[in-house]
Design a protein that fits this description.
Mean pLDDT: 86
Distance between the termini: 51 Å
Organism: Bacteroides caecimuris
Strand order of the largest sheet: 5-4-3-6-7
Radius of gyration: 20 Å
Structural class: alpha+beta
Protein name: DUF1573 domain-containing protein
Largest sheet: 5 strands, mixed
CATH superfamily of the largest domain: Glutaredoxin
CATH architecture of the largest domain: 3-Layer(aba) Sandwich
CATH topology of the largest domain: Glutaredoxin
Length: about 290
């Protein structure tokens, strides 16, 4: 219960007022709920080679990752980030956590290609019947589609640790048995003003890399520190100074976009920092021809 309260506080801090009640309802509904697994599960490597892999009854914890067929698949998967997180978990709690990936694909070939491209050798279940969701009625919001379960398959935390550094910290704290503070006043907060939240790159040759720049001004009394910046897909990268920005100072965030093909795009860059309004959502759009 205490961990659900912790994760609840983390979500409510970052949610706007009109989303807090919904977040509260979701988290309360999933508090200590047992996740039911389909009776027949097939796991593969790279979406091709079947492997002998099943839900463990011995693991102290399980991280269950569900990815639906809505939106940009590679943006949701973030497999390189998962490889890094899994390696970190293994170094801190070797063999005590099982990772279970369930992908409900709109295109199985696309999933397989992403697995191969990202060299993701961990077993995954390509759940073409969406059976895990049908059994459990998983929330439609991506932030609520990853679960940390205890040995009895009951939910002890909700949230995606590769999309949110606070969630990652919470998962690691639970897994390692260390105390975790969900308070927002355990660090010096400041305020920040963003130059603009959205930039349009216009129409351009899809083979040419594009660059735009966002600017943060530290309008508070304490140093402004960026904790993490996440991009929604691999075609978008960012560059920024890791040094604290003093009051009245500016931080430039350079965003580069390199199209993989001709397309119209809308991408989101999420900035986690010690500002009261964190996280900030930067959006870029345009048409690559």
């Amino acid at each position: 219960m205490k961990y659900i309260i912790a994760i609840l506080l983390l979500f409510l801090v970052s949610c706007k007022d009109n989303k807090r009640e919904h977040a509260l309802n979701v988290l309360q509904n999933w508090n200590s709920k047992e996740l039911i697994f389909p009776s027949e599960l097939y796991f593969t490597i790279n979406g091709k080679d079947s492997v002998d892999y099943s839900v463990s009854s011995q693991s102290q914890y399980k991280v269950v990752v569900y990815v639906d067929s809505v939106g940009c698949t590679s943006c949701k998967l973030r497999l390189p980030a998962w490889k890094s997180f899994m390696s970190q978990v293994d170094s801190l709690a070797s063999n005590s956590v099982q990772f279970l990936f369930f992908f409900f694909p709109k295109n199985k070939t696309e999933i397989s290609n992403i697995l191969v491209t990202d060299r993701f050798k961990y077993p995954v279940c390509i759940d073409e019947q969406d059976s895990l969701n049908i059994l459990n009625h998983i929330p439609t919001e991506m932030m609520f589609q990853t679960f940390l379960l205890n040995k009895k398959n009951k939910v002890v935390a909700i949230g995606n640790p590769v999309h949110n550094p606070k969630i990652r910290e919470l998962y690691l704290a639970i897994i390692t048995g260390k105390s975790h503070s969900a308070k927002v006043d355990d660090k010096l907060l400041t305020t920040a003003v963003l130059s603009t939240s959205q930039l349009n790159m216009g129409i351009f040759d899809w083979k040419q890399e594009q660059l735009v720049e966002f600017s943060f001004t530290n309008s508070g009394d304490n140093p402004f520190v960026v904790e993490e910046i996440y991009t929604s897909c691999g075609c978008t990268t960012v560059e920024y100074s890791k040094e604290p920005i003093q009051p009245s100072g500016n931080l430039k965030v350079k965003v580069k976009y390199k199209a993989e093909r001709p397309e119209h795009f809308n991408k989101t860059i999420t900035v986690y920092c010690n500002a009261e309004d964190s996280p900030f959502h930067l959006k870029i759009s345009g048409t690559a021809k």
